[in-house]
Amino acid sequence: MKNFKTEIKWAIIFALIGLLWMFFEKAMGWHGENIADHPKYTMLFMIPAILVYVLALRDKKKNLGGQMTWKQGFISGLVIGGIVALLTPLTTYITHAFITPDYFENAIAYGVETGKATEEEGKAFFNLTSYIIQGVIWAIGAGAITGAIVSLFVRSK
């Protein structure tokens, strides 16, 4: 555990920033009256997400005495993604129980109104279990990809 202290810290920071982003999305109306804008604007979260990985891997490099290989950075990114994946059920529950409890209902209604989904299809996709599964998979995959790319820039030459 001591070897992964930095990764644990940054995974928790990532999760907290993710929750703050959900407050932001809700405030922008992307979970309600402006839900049509949600798919394109939610992708803006990649900016703070990548920034967290850059800061995390720079911190890891500093903790390794200023020397870090690509492999060490990549493994660190994988670990951060794995811990974020473990936190995903909790953060997803907090998001949909407290921050934006009407999101699933609004998303289903929007899908039905626009003809993008039937009510049954909407209910199958827009629910807590589905979002937890998607979030866990996304955290692992995005963590691996982001860690691999950021490590190219943060590694020691």
> What do the pLDDT scores average to?
97
Shape: elongated
SSE order: HHHHHHH
Q: List low-pLDDT spans.
A: none
The tally of beta strands, per DSSP, is 0
How is this structure best described in words?
The chain is mainly α and 157 residues long. It has one domain (2-154). The chain contains 7 helices and no strands. Helix 1 (5-27) packs across helix 4 (70-99). The radius of gyration is 17 Å and the shape is elongated. The two termini are 28 Å apart. The model has no long low-confidence stretch (mean pLDDT 97).
Question: Can you tag this structure with a few keywords?
Answer:
single chain, about 160 residues, mainly alpha, about 75% helix, about 0% strand
What's this, in brief?
Helix content is 76%, strand content 0%. By secondary structure, the chain is mostly helical. It has one domain (2-154).
